[in-house]
Amino acid sequence: MLEFAKIDFNMLQFLHRKELSEICRWWKDLDFQRKLPYARDRVVEGYFWISGVYFEPQYSLGRKMLTKVIAMASIVDDTYDSYATYEELIPYTNAIERWDIKCIDELPEYMKPSYKALLDVYEEMEQSVAEHGRQYRVEYAKKAMDSSNYKPSFEEFKANALPTCGYAMLAITSFVGMGDIVTPETFKWAASDPKIIQASTIICRFMDDVAEHKV
């Protein structure tokens, strides 16, 4: 039994290394370190985070999808918080809400590569689940991404479960690559903002804000 356990562990470890290698190659090909020097490189961090959500071999597709979404969400977040001007963010927000490659012509040059990469990630996600008739899942994921870019006032921030956090977006997206265990009812439930997601969002938001706060 111990030998079988060791073999199982080694096979899973090999799968995880293979996934991370594939994701890092995708990230390196995007060349954001040069194109977007202001953006954080969080690919490996994101992968280990998602491996804590589901490490099992049957969720390989889900891990790869969600790690890429986290990487792109981090770039979007850094663009909003650290680099872009208000005037630049207006067409950027509109482009993300519309999910249309034609919007790329309205963006500043430095935003174009990341916007195209964002659309490509979700298109790849849609193609991966299409053969099983699960395209509807990606629509939920897109709507969740749109919501994560909403910028409320402080009073709205307190009253509406902190919609800018992005936790709900990641929770919904995590279901996309999970196979038959997830049903349309699962997405309807997650999109209804249940209390467990509200509470998790509040914890995630304030932990992030405390970590970034400068006294």
From TrEMBL:
Stored InterPro entries: Isoprenoid_synthase_dom_sf, Terpene_cyclase-like_1_C, Terpene_synthase-like, Terpene_synthase_metal-bd
Membrane-traversing stretches: none
Domain Terpene synthase metal-binding: 28-214
Claim: Nucleotide-binding is one of the keywords in the record: no
One GO MF term attached to the UniProt entry: magnesium ion binding
Co-factor(s): Mg(2+)
Biological or metabolic pathway of the protein: Secondary metabolite biosynthesis; terpenoid biosynthesis
Gene3D superfamilies: Farnesyl Diphosphate Synthase (1.10.600.10)
Keywords annotated in UniProt: Lyase, Metal-binding
Family recorded in the similarity comment: Belongs to the terpene synthase family.
Name this protein carries in UniProt: Terpene synthase metal-binding domain-containing protein
